[in-house]
Amino acid sequence: MRTVDADDGTPSRRPRADASMFQRLRLEPAYKVVSSEIERSILDGQLQPGMPLPTEQSLAERFGVHRSTVREAIRQIEQEGLVQRREGRRLFVALPGLYEMAPRAARLLLLQQTTFAELWQVAVTLEPLAAQLAALNAEPLDLQELAANTERTADLQAQGAESVEDNARLVELDVEFHALVGRASHNRALMLAREPISLLYNPTLLQIHLRLPQSKARNLAAHRAILDALQRRDAAAAAEWTRKHMVDFQKGFEMTGLDMQTPIARARSS
Q1: What are the pLDDT digits (tens) for 147-168?
Q2: What would the pLDDT profile of 89-105 be if each residue is shown by its tens digit?
Q3: Residues 157-169 as b or e (16 or more Cβ within 10 Å = b)
Q4: CB atoms within 10 A of CB 173
């Protein structure tokens, strides 16, 4: 439709609306919308750990969807550890443990082709921080568990620890030591951040122990120094000894002929 300009009488055209100004909608499947709403209710505290989840029928009526949609939504949040089945098939809201989430994060790091160098760059920051906080926040039981771990490591090394099984046990004790330090920090965000990285280093630690027998004595010496600093509540010393321990690990990694730029997924499958 043509119009006339009011000032000079020249014809003009009104701008026409163009559908290209709108963006295509991204509609999520109904079950994802339902699972997000249930998850939000759990995170907001409306549904608290230990409370029974409403029945499939009541949820279907509330959301206005089929029971099959609710069933798929529940399956998703169950995989996330936010609900658990008890008393037969009844579902209850659950609080997933910090260390139950770590394997999922570790799998994601594997899928992302994360390298050992990337893991080490994070670990060399997180582990000293964990030790520093542990020196300030560790409770008597935390220190007892760390001392017991160090004693078991020393006893096993005193027996020789030459078999693959013995070395694998030493790796387990090494990983446990650092996990105990992380727990002694009593910082849940830090514990959750460091655990997946620790899980992925396990196979490499075994290779270092088998190829560099001297690494076992160096590990024990470092653990003893870290423990001593924690017992003295010396945060600076605990952090510095842990940093040295991580640098020593990097040197051992390179001495075995392993490449820090190798994706951890490739190293684990070889």
Answers
A1: 999 999 999 999 887 888 888 8
A2: 788 888 776 556 666 77
A3: beeebeeeebbbe
A4: 19
Q: Read off the pLDDT of residues 48-81 as tens digits, 9 standing for 90 and up.
A: 888 899 988 999 999 999 999 999 989 888 877 7
Long-range contacts of 38-47 (CB under 8 A, 24+ apart): 38/73, 38/74, 38/77, 38/82, 39/77, 39/80, 39/82, 42/77, 42/82, 42/93, 47/93
* Whole-prediction pTM: 0.70
Per-residue pLDDT, averaged over 218-224, amounts to: 95
